[in-house]
Amino acid sequence: EPEVTQTPSHQVTQMGQEVILRCVPISNHLYFYWYRQILGQKVEFLVSFYNNEISEKSEIFDDQFSVERPDGSNFTLKIRSTKLEDSAMYFCASRFSDGPNQPQHFGDGTRLSIL
Amino acid sequence: GQQVMQIPQYQHVQEGEDFTTYCNSSTTLSNIQWYKQRPGGHPVFLIQLVKSGEVKKQKRLTFQFGEAKKNSSLHITATQTTDVGTYFCAGLISSGSARQLTFGSGTQLTVLP
After folding, report:
1. How far is A43 from A78, CA to CA, in rounded Å?
2. Are A33 and A67 contacting, i.e. CB atoms less than 8 angstroms apart?
3. CB A80 within 8 A of CB A86
4. Beta A110-114 vs A10-13: how paired, if at all?
5. Chain B residue closest to A95 (CA)?
6. Which residues lie across from B5 on neighbouring strands?
7. Which tens digit of pLDDT belongs to each residue from B32-83?
8. What are the DSSP E strand ranges found in B1-113?
9. How far is A112 from chain B (nearest CA, A)?
10. At CB < 8 A and 24+ separation, what contacts does B59-66 make?
């Protein structure tokens, strides 16, 4: 079964540094998402992306965050100047369409640790 | 902000007992989705409910969507150790042209053998 793949599985970065989290969505999917989950807490929506542009973003997704689909397969989340509170698990998800009963498929996540 | 509340936060049951988790939204939902997350894993989609009063079953799991489309429940009959994990509801909240999936805080289920 096709999967959403995320790399790296764990990223350790110094505070203030830039970090790029990478995702390869399922190949025929058109809608892409980033979520984060602080340890022991709920999943929080960050951003959705369709047709090469952001369709929705949450309050968390401030100017320090950006997303890109640089080619036909990768979907990246960049954090420009990381803060301690950015430490979390970041999940990428994709879905085929926006229609009803179209599930979001989540990747295994990237654990981001900011020192 | 718009919230999806979920209770209980934790539930310990003996294998074979039933389990229910409840979600309530402060606003009407376009749909509600349920996910299961095993420890150390990622959320896995279980089901989506769209219609007011909808009830769907998946083997021992029963999902309900309230008449007002503001609440939902997941009921597991005769729990098994494989049911262990955190169950999240996620409501699709539409506001104008904006649509955002808002997750509940999750119910962590422990099943004791």
Report:
1. 19
2. no
3. no
4. parallel
5. B45
6. B24
7. 999 999 988 999 999 999 999 999 999 999 999 999 999 999 999 999 999 9
8. 4-7, 10-14, 19-25, 31-37, 44-49, 55-58, 61-65, 71-76, 85-95, 98-103, 107-112
9. 14
10. B63/B34, B65/B32
Cβ–Cβ gap A45/B103 under 8 Å: yes
Q: Specify which residues A102 forms β-bridges with.
A: none
The neighbour count for residue A39, using CB atoms within 10 Å, is 8
Which CA distances in Å does B73 have to A24, A58, B10, B85, B106? Answer: 33, 26, 15, 16, 12
Using the beta-carbon criterion (under 8 Å), do B42 and A108 form an inter-chain contact?
yes
Measured in whole angstroms, how far is the alpha carbon of residue B30 from the centre of its chain? 15
- C-alpha separations of B65 from B24, B59, B70, B91 in Å: 10, 18, 8, 11
H, E, C per residue of A53-70 = EEEEECCCCCCCEEEECC
CA separation (Å) from A114 to A3, A46, A107? 27, 18, 21
**Tokens coding B41:** 């894993």
Instruction: Say yes or no for a CB contact (<8 Å) between B42 and A104.
Output: no
| From A72-76, B1-5, B14-18, B81-85, the region with the lowest mean pLDDT | B1-5
**What letter represents residue A59's amino acid?**
E
B11, B109 contact by CB (below 8 A): yes
